[in-house]
What we know:
It contains 16 helices and 22 strands. The chain has helices spanning 14-27, 43-47, 66-76, 92-100, 110-117, 119-128, 144-154, 180-195, 252-268, 300-307, 311-319, 399-412, 422-429, 432-436, 460-489, 495-508; strands at residues 7-10, 30-36, 50-55, 80-82, 104-105, 158-166, 169-174, 200-204, 210-218, 224-236, 239-245, 273-281, 287-293, 336-343, 345-346, 352-353, 356-357, 360-362, 369-373, 380-381, 388-396, 414-416. The chain is globular.
Amino acid sequence: MSAPFRKILVANRGEIAVRVARACREMGIATVAVFSDADRDSLHVRYADEAYPIGPPAPAESYLRIDTLLEVARRSGAEAIHPGYGFLSENPNFAEACGKAGVIFIGPPARAMEMMGNKIEARRIMKAASVPITPGSAGAVTSAAEVRKIAGEIGYPILIKAAAGGGGRGMRVVRAAGEIESALTACRSEAEAAFGDSSVYVERYAEKVRHIEVQVLADAKGNTVHLGERECSIQRRHQKLIEESPSPAIDDSSRARLCEAAVRACEAIGYRSAGTVEFLADGEGGFSFMEVNARLQVEHPVTEMVTGIDLVKAQIRIAAGEALALRQDEIRIRGASIECRLCAEDPDNHFLPSPGRIDRLRAPGGPGVRDDSGVYEGYVMPPHYDSLFAKLIVWGETRLAAIERMRRALDEYVVEGIPTTLPFHRRVMSDARFVDGDLHTRFIEGLNGRSPHAGSQAPDRALDLAAIAVALAKESGARRMSAEAERKGRGLSSGWRQAGRRRQMDDRL
């Protein structure tokens, strides 16, 4: 099969940039990496065929600079841009700017992103498409009296949420009428500060629910298919830690209704590319729409493992205007897959970030084991970005076989020099509730009888501040190491060949 593009710019960093570059290499497509000053020695820079500096470590001055990225695309001759996840991956302005610059954006149309970017509008569209939504307000709320009226209709607890929110930000749980006024004020202020939009709305809040999402592919020819569901209920402060496919709680009947609803959701907004429709599920067959993630998901490998479909390659071919290669009745779900997110965090110390040098690294291998990593031995994790450094994914004929394989792989994984979440994952894989599939979004609060925040009642904001303090304390050291790396690496173009040459030069000096 011929390559749909000659050269693609990957507008991201870390493991996802390496993942996209690997797919491109297998397709015969040259890749262009971009890197901030803090990422000069990153794996994605070494892996790509070309690499260009784009500015200081702060994302706003580098990875979020649309003008800079498009200038790199122009200089390098890249025909398309893959945004990965995070950064500009769901920014409709970026998608539009790519189009105006004559560069293909590998993702959904800007209009689809705009429709799903506002959660109030998304709820309206989904309701019209007969996709179940959580009971709540029909639109934005601005007064405590409005919130009290809605709460009286749907019952407590309720959730006040930012219309433009995401990542667990701009949300407040309200359990009694007396909490409404302060929660509404705080939520609106946080929404304005974080997203530039103070609009908020109300939903009913469920204490223990499952987070289930459906992977979808849609092309520009009018074809939309689903690739089954993922269970993503193991979360910390609304951030996923472990994902698997299929969900142990979904039977064939529920799966059919869930996946059909996801396809309807995507068709309602004219979606194109790989996307994910997220739902809250009650574990008894009921579910309601949460949001559409208009991008590749961190957890996409578990779907790839059970379907055998490379989602990045599918995205690239869809962006080039090709029709989907498979019909719905040709897609098979085989076995079970689990993913553990490996982060530079200390799980026994409130998951505090732990940037620094990786002194020793040994990834597991063997049958059914995949390691999507963005680091190498000797690499210095910078404090400026997400703490995720690798994803460990396994496959087994059954869910229990996958769990046993994950236990073996986690035991083989060696990371020395920085605390990581490896001990946390080993603990989860041995937890009887996890093995039984008894999952919900507050699962880790009772992990082995221990809270992951044991010994502390510190609220999220205090934990965030503590994390920032640790990161800043380590930043000065990392900065010195980055400066040294920059001195050594000045003039770096890209690729393993260039990296090897540079090391040879350093050895001669």
